[in-house]
Design goal:
- It is a single chain.
- It is built from 10 helices and 17 strands.
- With 374 residues, the protein is of the alpha/beta class.
- A hairpin with a 4-residue loop joins β7 and β8.
- α5 packs across α6.
- It is elongated and about 90 Å long.
Length: 374
């Protein structure tokens, strides 16, 4: 049987005002595995840690339980103190009798009984604990950034400029995110595109950044430092190696559909570039609204393309990558107007959200900056 030492902290009066410390000590003194039990007003203090270290050495303890505050606060403190006198740090456990006991009770009898149960459970855990040793593993020195808005763009640039490779994945045809939809930015009232566009171009041209637009992360496996990621590249039906971005296919496309980028205030073509400053500035074909994919005829974009860049045969492609770190910068979705019924949201057309208003105010928006009632 392991020899366990139990140290009950008063935490000033945070614990002792609600938990009867003496009763806890008396109840656990003869508990199986407990070699020693004591209390101290502030176990995290220098005298408290000295007491812990002295008893570990004197009694040759195999494990210790500190009944105190949250492990998030002082677990490393007590494990470090234990390690200094030769005890494996993972044989030191914290019984949280403050946040999970004294702070949530005003009945001293009930709190005391609960404290006993918490400490007993941690003693049993400590009996089953095994000493662990830190290991070192090689790390994949490449990062994945999920989301190509301003947060993802800046994250990718920061990492790449530090000398590491980055994969930037964006589900839309272009990076830019919500910021690309804004008219002006606080506090300088600069055009959002004036701030954003140079960063977008820098991402596309950076030798350390692999940009994957119109793509989504399907699966993440592995562990910290060595993640295995599956990414789905959705078909654009345009060969970007051939496409020059001339826009002729967009001009000639007969299909008109609501434009998501302009918050449905205008229409776009079935083959389209998301916005004028898009990166990459080449079109994608929306198969759900394309006449050819719906009815089997049209193919006007293919006919007018002078470099044969239209490729209707493209399929989903799964790409597997190994990365050491992942930054999740997936942005936000707007709160549904349908939830604001008291203001007429979802019923009255003139009740709009902030982003729709931004598109109206934007000089490159559907109204050219003129505020109009929907």
């Amino acid at each position: 049987m392991k020899k366990i030492g139990v140290f009950v902290c008063h935490c000033g009066i945070n614990i002792s005002s609600t938990v009867n410390i003496e009763e806890v000590k008396k109840a656990l003194k003869s508990y199986p595995g407990v070699k020693f039990i004591t209390d101290y007003k502030y176990m995290c203090s220098e005298p408290g840690q000295t007491l812990l270290k002295r008893k570990i050495k004197e009694l040759n303890l195999d494990g210790v339980v500190i009944a105190a505050c949250s492990p998030k606060l002082h677990e490393q403190t007590f494990r470090h103190a234990s390690e200094l006198v030769g005890l494996n740090p993972f044989m030191c456990e914290i019984a949280n009798i403050r946040e999970q006991c004294s702070w949530v009770h005003d009945n001293k009898k009930e709190a005391t009984e609960k404290a006993k149960l918490i400490i007993k459970s941690i003693i049993e855990k400590t009996v089953l604990d095994e000493g662990l040793k830190p290991i070192e593993v090689s790390v994949t020195k490449k990062a994945l950034v999920i989301g190509g808005g301003i947060a993802g763009i800046q994250s990718a640039l920061n990492i790449a400029n530090s000398g590491y490779e980055v994969i930037l994945v964006e589900k839309n045809p272009s990076i830019g995110g919500r910021m690309a939809q804004l008219s002006e930015t606080f506090p300088t009232l600069d055009c959002s595109q004036c701030i954003l566009t140079p960063k977008m171009v820098e991402v596309a041209q950076h030798p350390k950044i692999k940009l994957m637009t119109y793509s989504e992360v399907l699966e993440v496996g592995g562990f910290v430092g060595n993640f295995e990621v599956k990414i789905k590249k959705k078909p654009k039906y345009v060969d970007y190696d051939k496409c020059t971005g001339c826009g002729l296919c967009v001009e000639k496309c007969p299909a008109l559909v609501p434009d998501e980028f302009n918050m449905f205030l205008s229409k776009r073509k079935a083959i389209y570039t998301q916005f004028p400053q898009a990166v990459p500035n080449k079109p994608v074909l929306d198969s759900e609204n394309c006449i050819y994919f719906k009815k089997g005829k049209c193919r006007i974009c293919e006919k007018v393309c002078t470099v044969d860049a239209i490729d209707y045969s493209q399929k989903d492609e799964i790409v597997e990558e190994k990365v050491g770190a992942i930054v999740v910068a997936t942005g936000y979705q707007l709160y549904s107007l349908g939830n604001l019924k008291e203001f007429g949201g979802g019923k009255i057309k003139d009740v709009i959200d902030g982003l729709t208003f931004e598109r109206m105010l934007s000089a490159n928006g559907p109204t050219g900056g003129e505020v109009r009632r929907p």
